[in-house]
Design brief:
With 429 residues, the protein is of the alpha/beta class. Helix content is 31%, strand content 23%. The protein has eleven helices and 20 strands. The protein is globular, with a radius of gyration of 22 Å. The model has no long low-confidence stretch (mean pLDDT 91).
Length: 429
């Protein structure tokens, strides 16, 4: 189920996207109160935006814009909205996104071609380990896409290893869609209850919410842990509620593929200009084909690296590497700049560590401090020093370390109404 546009030459893809961009700009200039005002205030003539490079003439849209003017982004009356979802609110107040019937069809199409890229067909049975409620778009997208593909779906929801294994053994899914660290909990439950994971029906997992690869596309510490414990294929997927589009890995596992008919991607620096090829920058997206709440040059806050060389799977689309981190979560620690995923990866190197949460706060002089709250089998001072030495050697920082209990960690990881596990608690102003 590979769309024809994905295998066209890059010049053909660019021409195609330029036509789609014109359609989007015309649509928002006529229907979006927010963009009407932005274009008027900046004296923007959309007729002069004729190429993808011309996008740089347009101002970027930020998360603050969405939070402050949420309703002004809607291009249709409320009577046309079929489904309401909200963002997770991880980096601020949640934003409401409405979807029309047309948007729901687009969402299903997006997820169908994304999951198909990762090998799912109508012959597969997929166990969905994420919620469909709580105004969560991802679960709805996965379910809709799997229906579009004709695959069978087992809607178990998140958590509860006992129920997950009961469903695996009863319905024999071939794929799992879940947060990758949860796979380790499934393995631990299986080991305790004498379930041989290698003899089950599961052959692959679509991993959401956490990176399983490094910048070279090799498995990171979490990915390696999973592969060593359970010999199944692992595929990454990246998406956000605002973009209503996913970037999934194909069989080559060399980054998530962009869908040219659904989204335009830019990788920008601090000055909102394109970064040099191969450099890390902020992902900025322009949605295509969205009716209720299209976005133009929306700054996602995610720091990524783009890859433009053709993929050996036959697609010629841009690919995104793993998210390096959130721009707002960047930490300045004693002269070193780092993002939380680098620390997640180091903590996952240690078999003694069962779970963790990283807290970032500011000290009395206004500089960033890092505290690792860790549940470990080894509570010795020697292990604490080993952890510190490992951090110093790998990323040149020496954070504070506090051993704690699983119960306390779970309270931090799963606050009330949370929809995905929280590994970073940012207490900075």
């Amino acid at each position: 189920m590979t769309p024809n546009i994905a295998t066209k030459s890059q010049s053909e893809i660019t021409l195609f996207q330029q036509l789609k961009l014109k359609e989007t700009l015309t649509y928002v200039s006529e229907n979006s109160p927010f963009y009407k005002k932005v274009f008027a205030e900046n004296s923007i003539e959309i007729g002069q935006i004729t190429s993808l490079k011309d996008l740089q003439q347009l101002p970027c849209t930020t998360k603050d814009d969405l939070q402050q003017h949420n309703d002004k982004f809607f291009c249709v009356p409320k009577t046309k909205i079929i489904d309401y979802v909200t963002t997770s609110g991880t980096m601020g107040e949640p934003v409401t996104v409405g979807l029309t019937e047309q948007d729901l069809v687009r969402l299903a199409y997006n997820e169908a071609i994304s999951l198909a890229a990762s090998g799912i067909t109508s012959e597969d049975t997929v166990q969905l380990m994420t919620t469909l409620d709580r105004r969560f778009m991802a679960g709805l997208a996965y379910f809709s896409g799997l229906r579009e593909l004709g695959a069978s779906v087992i809607r178990v929801g998140s958590g509860v290893p006992e129920l997950q294994w009961d469903s695996i053994l009863k319905f024999e899914p071939t794929y799992i869609i879940c947060v990758p660290s949860f796979l380790l909990k499934l393995v631990a439950y299986a080991t305790k209850n004498k379930i041989n994971v290698s003899e089950t029906s599961v052959k692959a997992a679509i991993c959401i919410g956490e990176p399983i690869r490094d910048s070279t596309f090799k498995l990171n510490a979490l990915g390696k842990k999973i592969s060593e414990a359970w010999n199944i294929d692992l595929y990454s997927t990246y998406a956000s509620t605002e973009m209503q589009t996913a970037f999934n890995e194909c069989s080559e596992k060399q980054g998530g593929h962009l869908h040219p008919e659904l989204i335009i991607a830019e990788i920008l620096d601090e000055n909102n200009t394109p970064v040099a090829a191969g450099k890390i920058g902020e992902l900025v997206i322009t949605t295509l084909g969205i009716e209720a709440m299209p976005l133009v040059r929306f700054k996602t806050g995610d720091m990524v690296q783009a890859h433009t060389e053709p993929c050996s799977c036959g697609r010629n689309t841009l690919r995104l590497g793993a998210v390096v981190g959130r721009k707002q979560q960047m930490i300045k620690y004693k002269g070193t700049t780092l993002y939380p995923p680098a620390m997640y990866n180091l903590l996952q190197d240690f078999k003694q560590i069962q779970s963790f949460v990283i807290e970032v706060f500011q000290n009395e002089i206004g500089t960033d401090e890092i505290l690792l709250k860790v549940v470990s089998d080894d509570l010795s001072e020697a292990f604490k020093n080993t952890l510190k030495d490992h951090f110093r050697a790998k990323i040149r920082v020496s954070p504070g370390i506090e051993f704690t209990t699983q119960e306390r960690i779970e309270l931090l990881q799963s606050p009330k109404m949370s929809r995905k596990p929280i590994l970073l608690v940012d207490r900075r102003n």
